[in-house]
Please model this.
Amino acid sequence: MALVNVSGLRKSFGKTDVLKGVDFQVERGEVISIIGPSGSGKTTMLRCVNLLERPTGGRIEVDSRVLCEEQANGSMTFADKAAIREAREHIGMVFQRFNLFPHMTAVENVIEAPIAVKNVPKPEATARAHELLEAVGLGHKGDSYPMQLSGGQQQRVAIARALAMDPTLMLFDEVTSAVDPELAGEILLVMKRLAEQGMTMLVVTHEMGFAAEVADRVLFIDHGRIVEQGPAADVLQNPSHERTKAFLHAVLDRAPMEAEVEEAAEGLVDDLLVRPERIGGDDDGS
Amino acid sequence: MDLDLVWEAIPLIWKGASTTASLTAWALVLGTIGALILALMRLSSIKPFRWFAAGFGWLFRGIPLLILLFFAFFALPDLNIGIVDGILLEPFQAAVVALSIWTAAYQAEVIRSGIIAVDPGQAEASEALGMAKARYMRRIIIPQGVRIMIPPYTSNAMTLLKQTSLATLVTVPEMTLLTQRLFSNDFQFRERIAALALLYLAMTTVFVVIQQVTERTFRLKV
Model:
């Protein structure tokens, strides 16, 4: 049975329908990349999985726990507070903006939840925190405060913090978007290793390289619906929908930009400015 | 201005300093406890709590402190509602009641604004980790909010200290009342009032120092 079962998921903010009926399953050990233009609803979809957003329709089940369910009359029933907290213990989440606790050291950040939620004795939690920080390459930074760390380091502490709860599922919400590009690699490397160790992961990302290399499956979401999903290689290399193609053009074009700029410098300025795919891609992303 | 008369007045007025200080201390302690409760009520998901706290702030920030003080001292003894048949307070008690209510109303806003100024991502991260609200308010949100609260909280505390001078008008023998007694005997207004001002300044300076120390304590390590 799938670890995550989402069906008919809908979410509106006021009159804006952000998710218009989303169905997907995640098997144990599977790594899924969720891609799509900004505003497509991919982050909202991820945040529904641990009920940081409360869906307005549909059903979510994680690890055989029903978190919310739409009744026949259209009303929503949610698991009670304690059950939601219990489910969240097993669902790690890493945020775009890290959200580390700024008044605590790296180690204190990592041990807070195991002590508070699982009653792990402090020495035990601390030993585990050091192991986890070691595993994300920050064994020497345990006593540093978040503001003393680079974005890439902070995000790796945030990953260690989530892992300290021994989750069965990890949610990643554009975790490299707020760090300098040269620091994204160290975060992606940690995620790749995590995937290799069999962690079930849902990864909202703009990193197509990661999606191609690490993800088992890719979901392309646009305007609140899953437009296309399948094995990473299929979706990324042979997309079957026009919107997927347009999006991938827009995103993948960014990578060879440097080379293009060089070409442009050699007198191909006009060509660079009127690339039709890029214009199409921009429209799609707006 | 005769400086000798200023210095001579200081020990005489200083006799009221302990009353000024204990009015301030009582009102600050009781008022802060009240403010914390009001702030949490204001942020609660239970509507009647929010209404009560908002109404309290509206009422007691909207009425002059002097009127609160007169009410506590002169009007409470005549108050008849239900089983309450007049509450007769000593001048000092009446002043503590009025000053505490005033402090609670103002500091509640300081505490509330400090809490809502904390990045909502902090609560989200705590929730995602499965932490209960009571736990992460205490461990994550309030410690960060305190940093934001220190300057306005201290300002209000300094205002409170100075406002205790109003207790003169219900005959609490604090510094301002003793000064009045002095200058109504010898008419040395300038010197006596200057001495009084110096003493208030000395006492408010304590708050300035406390603010600097606490700000340093709560500063984030960079």
